[in-house]
Amino acid sequence: MVLDKLGSSLKETLAKIAKSMFVDESVVNELVKDIQRALLQADVNVKLVFALSNSIKKRALEEKVPSGVTQKEYLVRIVYEELTKFMGGEKNEIVIDKTKKPFKIMMVGLFGSGKTTSISKIGRYYTNRGFKVATLGLDVHRPAAPQQLKQLSDRLNVTCFINEKEKNALKIYKEYEKEFSKYDLLIIDTAGRDALSDDLIKELKELTNYAKPDEKLLVISSDLGQTAQKQAESFHETCAVTGIFITKLDGTAKGGGALSACAATQAPVKFIGVGEKPEDIEVFNPKGFVGRLLGMGDIEALLEKAQEAMDKETAEDLGKRLLKGEFNFLDLYEQMSAMSKMGPLSKVMEMIPGMGGMKIPKEMLEGQEGKLKKWKIIMQSCTKEELEDPEIIGRDRIERIAKGSGATVQEVRELLKQYKQTKKMMKMMKGTEDPEKLMKKFKGKMPKGFKF
């Protein structure tokens, strides 16, 4: 999970509030200390931690609790709102203007920050949304950097402009300039350094002044910790950074340092990298991000993942069938295929409201992923009649399906049980399109033993 330790600490803190008999100043003080400890352990800047915790304390002790809300609920809301504000408040998604031809995003950052990989992720993200994307390799100092960019771009079927013989970045830009108007989006790779040196500053200023990029994204590796703030400020002075891409946010406890650096420089986080694969990219949404940290889920990110995993026509058809209360093995197969494409179950779970706070062992989730693969093989051994009406599958059919799929009778029975539980949930969904009403419908009514 992204910032796993910070999320666990904050969830434990909120659990203490839930167990408290009533909310008074001592409870608020304990809450504030727990939040301070969690943020400092995540390497968030000390001054920012105290400013945030003081704001939470002031609101908790001075604000009047609205009618219809308990003191505990309002205290949790204050923590959520203040953390969201600290992370940037509103989502700052890059909106590509197709009339620009091309809209330009220039990537800057230190050596080893993950610029080139981040470019491939952004390229994939916008290509999947119907934009014609090209990349430009202007990292003329790092050996093989242009080739790395080209290889990553080729995998995405994205045009890549490079010239490995030329060592002047601006000359390469001018060489291909007439070609750029054929594309909706041009992503520019620039040189990195171990430190922000004078020659790098000069090169970046020249490129910025000539190319006039619409967005200048600073790529920061989350394992930099609090030193990220100094780097962010230096790059901001050099080329007026408009946004930040934080990489490696899934594999470090120090991600809070990179997040707080953005808060200090007032440059919003536009994207976060949550894994090594090209699809492991998310538009940074402070509300959803904090929701996941606190175990409240992130419905928006979940829906976006689902849309990527299933084509629009299939999703709409399945949605209509589910809202009518119709459900069979073919529908279950579509659901399972989509979930497999959405990434590891642990990441999907933290986006589901109420599920992110559950302490589910990693081994159990990995075992469930294995079951999904096995169940898909079992369904491939079913006849068309059985797929369309699983209710007809009795003992003899179970034994035949088990033999045909190389599964045990018990595994086939488990699949049938999963189907019946899922069908029960689909009946609960029937005619309910409003997400809030849906959550109320499910509250306390999950089928016993149900597994996502």
Characterise the protein shown here:
The chain is α/β, with parallel strands linked by helices and 452 residues long. The protein is 55% helix and 9% strand. It folds into 3 domains: 83 residues, Up-down Bundle (Four Helix Bundle (Hemerythrin (Met), subunit A)), CATH 1.20.120.140; 191 residues, P-loop containing nucleotide triphosphate hydrolases (Rossmann fold, 3-Layer(aba) Sandwich); 144 residues, Signal recognition particle, SRP54 subunit, M-domain (434 Repressor (Amino-terminal Domain), Orthogonal Bundle). The chain has 20 helices and 8 strands. The protein has an 8-stranded mixed β-sheet with strand order 3-2-4-1-5-6-7-8, sandwiched between helices. The two termini are 17 Å apart.
Number of strands: 8
Level-1 CATH class name of the largest domain: Alpha Beta
Mind telling me the C-alpha Rg? 25 Å
Q: Profile the largest sheet.
A: 8 strands, mixed
Structural domain count: 3
Question: Mean pLDDT, rounded to whole units?
Answer: 76
User: From the helix content, strand content and strand pairing, which structural class follows?
Assistant: alpha/beta
Write the layout of secondary structure elements.
Blueprint: H1 4-19, H2 25-41, H3 46-62, H4 71-86, E1 103-109, H5 115-127, E2 133-138, H6 145-155, E3 159-161, H7 169-176, E4 185-190, H8 198-211, E5 215-221, H9 228-239, E6 243-247, H10 255-265, E7 269-273, E8 281-283, H11 286-293, H12 299-309, H13 312-323, H14 329-341, H15 345-349, H16 362-380, H17 384-388, H18 395-405, H19 409-429, H20 435-442
Helix pairs in contact: 1-2, 2-3, 3-4, 4-11, 5-6, 9-10, 12-14, 14-16, 16-18, 18-19
